[in-house]
Design a protein that fits this description.
alpha+beta, Lipoxygenase-1, Jelly Rolls, 7-stranded antiparallel β-sheet, 6-stranded antiparallel β-sheet, 8 helices, 34% strand, elongated, binds fe (ii) ion
């Protein structure tokens, strides 16, 4: 089986650079046809073509069968800017990118499921959010399941912008950055200074225990709940819920300064070097959770070597505050760096609708 890219004009020998998911790929040229004979890995792959001369792509063929519609999924990547629809490579800063899935039959099914016929040829980036996962190779000391999770994706993620919804009644987005400033350094220092007085728990049934039995001596990720999620305190204000840690001034001020109406559960989570959180979803965790609430996630330090991934979506940003859809999307984390990662998570957050629009920058 081969993949053929057909151009309008004849292609000059050695004028192209072809990569699949960042790896150089052999190809042959026959007049206006670029042929990739090499086997493509199962699942999601990103084909990229650079050209030293302007070229226009007019068709994509699997063996000799045209799947012309699918060139409308392609885009031009130029200095991190993505342009769509785009079938012309006009300068050497541009890469023509085609997000594909192997076997190609799965690709066809996937696209037909997500994009209705009328959209082809229009600007898909205007109507849909696309998330293309990157292939991450983690250390081979981690388990095969975990390394496969970070390297392979069966598909990518397409979300119709009309179906996104709001975070207070359930967003379809995997995550969204928050426009909220907080004193990361002061909070992190306060946690480190008080680490021996904070009660951390490493018992995470279904996540860690499973792996420790299977793989032995890993460092364990740990959580310290500052506000416990119980049904009995659901109507109590954040101010009252946070009295027990009033002496931790920065954490107390942080949680009371959030532009939210209430929250269910507030915790610190640590991820030491050489530790991991196995793929899981948080659906049903933390006991009772009010309906129509979201999870906030705050990175306190940028730690090199930490990868937090939503499957079929890609890496979640390592910095700043986020709203995360940790109930809908399976996720896993590894720390193969040298420092412990500290984060704060707040689940069951109910929003003030006006403040939410400021928080997500709309
Ligand atoms: Fe989680």
């Amino acid at each position: 089986m081969s993949l053929k890219i057909i151009t309008k004009d004849q292609i000059q020998k050695d004028s192209l650079t072809v990569e699949i998911s960042g790896v150089h790929t052999d190809y042959t040229i026959d007049k206006t046809t670029v042929e990739i004979k090499q086997n493509i890995e199962q699942g999601f792959n990103l084909l990229s073509i650079k050209s030293q001369h302007p070229i226009e792509i007019i068709d994509v063929k699997i063996d000799n069968n045209s799947i012309r519609n699918y060139i409308y999924l392609s885009y031009i990547d130029e200095k991190e800017k993505k342009i769509q629809p785009a079938t012309h490579i006009s300068n050497t800063d541009q890469s023509w990118m085609l997000p594909l899935i192997y076997p190609y039959s799965n690709w066809i099914t996937f696209i037909l499921k997500n994009i209705a016929n009328g959209h082809y040829g229009s600007d898909l980036f205007k109507d849909f959010h696309f998330f293309f996962p990157e292939k991450i190779e983690i250390k081979n000391t981690f388990s095969k399941v975990l390394s496969d999770y970070f390297y392979h994706d069966s598909e990518y993620t397409i979300i119709d912008k009309k179906q996104v919804g709001n975070w207070y009644d359930g967003s379809a987005l995997p995550y969204q950055a928050l426009q909220f400033e907080y004193d990361k350094i002061a909070i992190c220092d306060e946690i480190k200074q008080n680490i021996n007085d904070l009660k951390f728990d490493v018992d995470h049934p279904g996540q860690n225990k499973l792996n420790l039995e299977e793989f032995g001596n890993y460092e364990q990720w740990a959580t310290c709940s500052l506000i416990e999620g119980t049904e009995s305190n659901k109507n109590i204000s954040i101010h009252e819920k946070s009295q027990s840690f009033k002496h931790l001034k920065h954490l107390y001020d942080f949680v009371n300064g959030l532009p939210i109406t209430n929250l269910h559960h507030f915790m610190i989570a640590t991820l030491p070097p050489n530790s991991f959180i196995y793929p899981h979803s948080d659906s049903g965790n933390r006991g009772f959770q009010p309906k129509g609430t979201a999870t906030m996630y705050f990175n306190l330090e940028k730690v090199d070597g930490v990868f937090f991934k939503f499957g079929n979506v890609g890496l979640v940003p390592n910095e700043g505050g986020l709203l995360i859809n940790n109930k809908k999307y399976a996720h896993a984390v590894v720390n193969q760096g040298k420092q412990t990662r500290y984060i704060l998570t707040i689940t069951g957050v109910s929003f003030d609708k006006e403040k939410l629009s400021i928080l997500v920058g709309k």
